[in-house]
Write a structure and sequence with these properties.
Number of domains: 1
Number of strands: 0
Oligomer: single chain
Order of helices and strands: HHHHHHHHHH
Shape: globular
Distance between the termini: 42 Å
Structural class: mainly alpha
Length: 220
Amino acid sequence: MTQVVRSLMMLGFPACFVLAGARMSVDTAWAVFWVSPLMSLLLAHLWLRERVGWPWWVGAVVAYAGALVILAPAPFRARVIVFPLGTAACFALYLALSRRLRHETSAVRLFYTALGVWIPLAFVAPWFWQTPTPRDLAIMMTIGVLGLVFLAALDYALDVTPLSHLAPFMLAQPVWGVILTAALRRQLPAFATVAGAGMVIAAWLPIIWVLRASLKAGMR
């Protein structure tokens, strides 16, 4: 049952995001979504019974503030926030369930993740199916391979470290977005964007310092 619920989170994630993107800008939807590390910390503390120290809470809050500066969300109607929050909740619960199922092999977890998404979509896809062009097919296959690599890496990370230790570092994605966008456009990002990325990185420093101190203490 846990595997089924976990796999359905990967169906709810894109479904909620599509609904959010239809009602607000994509950057705004992402800005709300990145509250998911804070949700993950809460689940790690209350459900997984992990000890979450203050550097993790402070780091996650500051990093999230940095992500907001990077993404610069636009105003939106309050009632539609349920959709990006649903995306964040699905992802946070997926992470918590993955950590809880760490005794299972990664292959088993990935199989159930794919199966839980494929079965529901198999019933509705025929009503919306359009034959993809070779270009569309190549894009779909690329997304599929990258998604598989991402989920496998995420499973491995949750196998070897508590969710609470990992959650604040999930906010690396907006920082990488800044770097890749600057590289592809061949232009420097705005000062506010750089400042937001700096906030995210600075928020990790106390966490890294505590983890390093703990590692050194364990080696003595």
